[in-house]
Design goal:
The protein is an all-alpha fold and about 600 residues long. It has helices spanning about 5-10, 15-20, 35-45, 50-55, 75-95, 100-120, 145-155, 160-190, 195-215, 220-230, 235-265, 280-290, 300-320, 330-340, 350-365, 430-435, 440-450, 455-460, 465-480, 490-515, 520-530, 535-545, 550-570, 575-585, 590-605, and strands at about 1-5, 380-385, 400, 410-415.
Length: about 600
């Protein structure tokens, strides 16, 4: 459902490259595209120590050790990145694609597309456009305060003293990041870019969890102790040093951020959409284009969602009747199904452990069928984990984290277990097929392991319509191969997921383009999906903070299905679903227009 930090990133930094590439030689016969690509890749990584850690990059390729550093998030640094993006775009447009190999020409087009989307939205001048586009620097889903602890716990490895010392240095740098975030947020606040009151309430709640918990309950300390001990180091000594840094530098920043947001909260409104801000309509137009990699208008997206919902709700109605839920509205019947004891887990530690155990059984069951869908399977494994408690309140319901390139870390499928009432047994298979196999895990791991792709395409490009479109399509193919045979309630979960993604098209455009309130969006999503109300509230707040992003799922799925039907008609008896899936996943993440060209060229050949 969600996407973790390492997959949200787009091409953001190329300062070193800009200084080293001459506009004239960018389109000369002697222009070395491979060398250009390598410089671009490592200049970008040099500006993102966190991504270097996530990808386990050789320090020698990015100017030296990075494990003690963090990205500069000051307003000045971000302005420089935006300027470098504009210069990079000019260089990319001056490269003569006709003089490149087909694979290099495709890489060039992908880079131009990614950079153009980033430049377009950055130039609107609202919020934080360098990662997942958001009008708000600090919210329940944006800001270093909520992403950094999860990053350190999940991705900063400790094998020796140098790694443990680097952890402590990163704690100091984290305090600086939080300070920079707050300065940028205050600047936006002064310009009237204030998140809705309920977004700030959730943000304050998450900040208070850390403040009230103190150093002893922070993974910045506890995870360090465990990892240091596992590496045969003195974990207690490192824990004491981390506690000192936490109490002297980090905790004051959490308090300062919380207090500033409490003050801003006094001026906050309840309006959900970005249309309330100056240039807000422009921001949404660019955010929607970047998320979907299409030129669809909000009206077109809105109407598509309604059309899919009409078809899906009719199928849900039939299945509800089949399992004995015949009376009442669709939403009322689905609500009863959520509380049906035949499908429930206790909302306690034992119940949450059973959820994780059952998901593992589902992962194994799908793994046994993957040969029917793919010629090539990823070498990396996927493990199931609960979302850490300290970010449960604002985190997505589920998300995937990529494996390490060197094989030292598997992929992780995280599920939010803040309330097991939101996860009846019939809802879990579809989420699992989306986040693990054949969804995000196959898509990400296969690209990462594809040695024929340039590193930047295999590991560093993010097009949400492609990645989330594939994961939603993965839910559909699980149904097509019979994973819900003799399980009508499970198939109802699949249809609810489809309705959920279709309703996103309606509520996201509703709030940001047509003036819907938060409650109007909640009511519509509930009526058309019957989904658990606390989950809907969390989801709607996510769409408020990440305009357009939620539309990418269904737009991407529809394009993949459309291309499959095209290939079937073109190829006839030669069509092989396994080869089709391989071609979809063989080029890494790409915009939908480029995906269309890839498939049509393949089908014609």
């Amino acid at each position: 459902m969600g996407i973790n930090f390492s997959r949200r990133e787009t091409l953001v930094g190329a300062t070193a490259l800009i200084a080293s590439v001459n506009f004239q030689n960018a389109f000369a016969d002697s222009f070395d595209f491979a060398a250009f690509l390598e410089k671009l890749t490592y200049s970008r990584l040099k500006n993102s120590p966190e991504q270097c850690t996530s990808l386990n990059i050789d320090p020698n390729k990015v100017g030296g050790p990075y494990s003690s550093k963090l990205t500069d998030k000051s307003a000045k640094a971000i302005a420089l990145r935006i300027k470098s993006q504009e210069k990079l775009l000019a260089i990319l447009k001056n490269i003569d694609a006709s003089k490149l190999s087909p694979n290099d020409a495709m890489t060039l087009n992908i880079l131009k597309s990614s950079t153009q989307y980033s430049v377009d939205i950055a130039n609107v001048g609202i919020g934080d456009s360098m990662g997942q586009a958001s009008p708000y620097v600090i919210s329940q889903l944006t800001g270093s305060y909520q992403s950094f602890p999860d990053f350190m716990d999940g991705q900063h490895k400790i094998k020796n003293k140098e790694d443990a010392d680097a952890w402590l240095l990163r704690l100091n740098a984290f305090a600086n990041q939080m300070q920079d975030d707050l300065l940028r947020a205050k600047s936006d606040f002064q310009n009237g870019i204030i998140p809705p009151s309920y977004i700030l309430d959730t943000t304050i709640k998450q900040l208070n969890v850390v403040i009230d918990g103190g150093a002893k309950n922070s993974p910045l300390v506890s995870s360090l102790i465990k990892k240091a001990n596992d590496a045969k180091l003195d974990g207690n000594s490192y824990g004491q040093e981390a506690t000192k840094i936490f109490e002297a530098k980090i905790l004051p920043q959490y308090i300062a951020t919380r207090d500033a947001i409490k003050e801003i909260r006094k001026s906050a409104k309840s309006i959900a959409g970005v249309g309330q801000f100056k240039n807000g309509d422009k921001f949404y137009e660019k955010a929607l284009a970047r998320a979907t990699t299409t030129n669809m208008t909000p009206k077109e997206v809105h109407e598509l969602g309604k059309k899919i919902l009409e078809q899906t709700n009719a199928q849900m109605d039939e299945l509800l009747k089949q399992i004995g839920y015949k009376d009442g509205t669709l939403a009322a019947r689905m609500e009863k199904l959520y509380s049906d004891p035949n499908y429930s887990y206790p909302n306690n530690d034992e119940g949450k452990a059973k959820v994780l155990a059952d998901i593992n059984v589902m992962v194994d069951g799908m793994n046994a069928r993957l040969g029917e869908l793919f010629e090539t399977l990823p070498k990396a494994k996927v493990e199931v984990k609960a979302v850490p408690k300290y970010i449960e309140a604002g985190a997505p319901n589920g998300y995937y984290q990529r494996p390490a390139i060197d094989g030292s870390r598997p992929g992780f499928y995280f599920i939010n277990l803040r309330d097991t009432k939101g996860w009846p047994k019939w809802s879990l298979p579809t989420l699992t097929y989306h986040e693990a196999s054949p969804g995000h895990h196959n898509q990400i791991a296969l690209a990462q392991e594809n040695t024929s792709l340039p590193f930047i395409r295999a590991n560093m490009m993010g097009f949400t319509a492609y990645s989330e479109g594939w994961a939603l399509y993965a839910e559909q193919i699980a149904d097509e191969i019979g994973m819900y045979e003799n399980n009508p309630a499970g198939r109802l979960g699949f249809l609810q997921s489809t309705a959920f993604r279709a309703s996103r098209l309606v509520v996201d455009t509703g709030m940001h383009a047509f003036g819907w309130s938060k409650q109007q969006a909640i009511d519509y999503m509930y009526q058309t999906t019957g989904k658990f109300i606390p989950q809907i509230e969390s989801e709607i707040e996510r769409y408020i903070v990440w305009p357009g992003q939620a539309c990418s799922y269904m737009i991407g799925r529809q394009k993949i299905v459309e291309l499959r039907e095209y290939a079937k008609a073109k190829m006839g008896s030669k069509f092989d679903i396994r080869k089709f899936h391989n071609i979809i996943l063989s080029q890494g993440a790409v915009p939908l227009d480029i995906l269309e060209k890839i498939v049509k060229d393949w089908a014609s050949a």
